[in-house]
């Protein structure tokens, strides 16, 4: 493996291209990224490699982010991967659902770039 | 049935009345016959007294015997008149009584008085056997006639009594039969009345109870020719009207409920649709403000901000259009232009935003002129194209075409999506209707097709869709340029 493998891998699962771009821009060049538009693509990405963290949108076409997260947490291999849930709803209900399903953090949109960067850094360092 | 029962009862009563009348007549006859017999026997006694008095005179003419004769001569008249009176109701008996009276009268004047006169002068002459024999013959005749009167009356009375008894017997038999028959008839009459009145009444009550319980499909027999037929028709008209009203109410409630659901889905959708581009705009703006980025990244992020802000603007514009269309303010600015240029332009715009689909163009080589509001039509074609992108799987082919067909200018867009389920086909042009799109996480407001239809119809055109092999074709037909579409407020 090359030296670049030292940079942590982050799986971004969001159906909106601009938001994936934003997340990458916010987190910067310190990470490698794998992108998924829906839960199916995210599962495929997870089968290929294990990321250091996942940034997950709630509102996905087909299976929702919360459902995907619940299934992820039921699998022993993947249950320890830190997950940050980002949501367009930013409601207390969504936050409860996300944390209940096993999210390590919840950030509502529109989010502050610094918040997301701080949360992801902290989760990977832990 | 009623008539039959009444006739039977009337006949029985008539029979009773007749028997009663006959019995009374027979009783009267009997009484009269008794009176006649009694008077006849009384008269016979007096006739015997006449004969005895006369024999007394013949035996010895004394003042006493003469006096007895004179007394007897008067005394028979009373019973004779009584007999006549008793026989007054019967012409035959009366005639016999009168003839008896005449016979006795004649016996006295023609024989008795003569014998008495002769006896005063020559008692021996009257004792001759001839004179005596004449008297005996006459008396025997009178006695026999008297007996005949009494006997005839008695026999006649007996006959009448018999007849009356027979009639009375018949009447009593008839009465008994009537007594048995009447309750039977009354029961039959009751059953008949029940069939005629009670049963339909009960059906009416049952039906009314059903209606009260909410069953408006209940119907009464409306073909009867009586009042129940009239009631049935009125009742059925009522239940029909009730069912229709309820159906209408349910439909209206369903449609309201649906509309409410669409609105609630819309609110969810709007908050997502607004927040997603807003999150990009805000996020990238803050990033640009906070970080010192290379020029290349700055430009890229600004482009994203621009695209996302445009997306927001389109969204807001869609809402404004929807409101304008709902409120009826909808002005067209028609101009003559080549539809091909509009199709190409929209196809390029779509391609600029979407790299995951293959776009194929199919436009004619000659111009396709229409007179229409260019920006509104661009909105329609853009909407159909963006739907094709949204509902087609990544990598799918989208074909955009334009052609003259059957006197119209047609634009069509074929996609390779999953198609529109039959249950959604009728409603997809309704505002806020999104079918299964919300559940599938496909963004949208449910306004695009509704707005598109209003725009196309305002141009006297038609919009529709057809399932095609492996996808769906949406099409727009517009009048060709030489025909002037009437600018109108829809």
Task: Report on the architecture of this protein.
The complex is a heterodimer of chains A (126) and B (490). Chain A has 126 residues and is of the alpha/beta class. The model of chain A has no long low-confidence stretch (mean pLDDT 86). Chain A has one domain (7-125): Rossmann fold (3-Layer(aba) Sandwich). Chain A has a 5-stranded parallel β-sheet, with helices on both faces. Chain A has helices at 17-27, 39-48, 65-73, 92-100, 113-125; strands spanning 9-13, 32-36, 53-57, 83-87, 105-108. Chain A starts with 8 loop residues before the first strand and ends with a helix. In chain B, helix 7 (227-290) packs antiparallel against helix 8 (295-327), helix 8 packs across helix 12 (448-458) and helix 9 (339-353) packs across helix 10. Chain B folds into 3 domains: 2-188; 245-329, Helix Hairpins; 330-479, Heat Shock Protein 90 (2-Layer Sandwich), CATH 3.30.565.10. Chain B is of the alpha+beta class and 490 residues long. Chain B has 12 helices and 7 strands. The radius of gyration of chain B is 65 Å and the shape is rod-shaped. Chain B has a 5-stranded mixed β-sheet with strand order 2-4-5-7-6. In chain B, strands 1-3 form a two-stranded antiparallel ribbon. Chain A binds chain B through residues 15-16, 18-19, 21-22, 25-26, 38, 59-62, 64, 88-90, 109-114, and chain B through 271-272, 275-284, 286-287, 290, 297, 301, 304, 307-308, 440-442.
